[in-house]
Amino acid sequence: MRSADRRLPRIAGTITAVWRSRPWIADAAVAVAVLAAELPYRDADLALVALALAVSGAMAARRGHPIAVVALVGVLCVLGARPPWHDAPVSAMIIALYAVGRHTPAWASTASAAVAMAGHWLLYDLPWAPAPLGMTVALALTPAAPVAAGHIMRLRGELAQRREQRIAAAWPANCTT
Fold first, then answer.
1. Four-residue CA torsion sign, 85, 120, 31, 76
2. What's the longest Cα–Cα distance across the chain?
3. C-alpha pair distances (Å), 40 with each of 1, 56, 79, 173
4. Mean pLDDT (whole number) for 166-176
5. CB atoms < 10 A from the CB of 142, how many?
C-alpha cells in the first residue's frame, strides 16, 4: 500500500472531525453553495441577486432556527416564483425542509411540512391545467421527502448514541483491552 493511500483515511477523519466540531463551517459551506446555485447567471436583475443573498443568508441560521428559516425561504420562494422572474430558490427550500426534519421535534416538523405541502400545491399545481390525481398527490407530497430524510438522519444519530452508551455501560471498568 502506498503512503498516500494510508494518509487518505487520516485526512478524511481530520476533515470530518473539524466539520463536526465546528458546525458554523458546515453552515457557511451550505450558504455559499446555495448562493452559487441561486445566483442568476444571465440578466442579473438586482431583485434576483437580493433574493439569492437573502436565501443564502438564511441558510446560516438553519440549525438554530429551522422553522423561521423555512418560513423565510418559503416566502422568498413565493416571491421568486412570481412573474417576471419565475425563479424560486428550490434548492434552499429543500435544505431548509431537511433542517426542520433534522433539528426540530416531530410535531413541529410535521406541521411545517404540511404548510410547505399546501403552499407547494397552491403555488405550482393549482394554477396549471388539471393533472391526474396520482401526479397531483405525488407533486404535493414532494416537500415531505426532505423532512422525512431529516427525521431519519436524526433518529440514526440518536440510535448510534444510545448504542455507544450501552456499550460503554456494559464494558467492564477494569478491562484494559
1. positive
2. 71
3. 46, 13, 15, 59
4. 74
5. 17
pTM here?
A: 0.77
- Residue 70's φ and ψ, nearest 5 degrees, are -65, -40
pLDDT band of 175, cuts 50, 70, 90: low
7-45 confidence digits (pLDDT tens): 666 776 777 777 677 888 888 888 999 988 888 776 667
Q: Extract the runs of DSSP E, i.e. beta strands, from the chain.
A: none
Contacts of 110 (CB under 8 A, 6+ apart): 147
CB of 93 closer than 8 Å to CB of 51: no
Q: Which residue has the higher pLDDT, 97 or 173?
A: 97
Residue 40 DSSP SS3: coil
Contacts of 156 (CB under 8 A, 6+ apart): none
Could you give the angle at the alpha carbon of 118 between the alpha carbons of 65 and 102, nearest 5°?
A: 30
Residue with cell 484494559: 176
84 preceded by cis ω (within 30°)? yes
Per-residue pLDDT, 78:
82
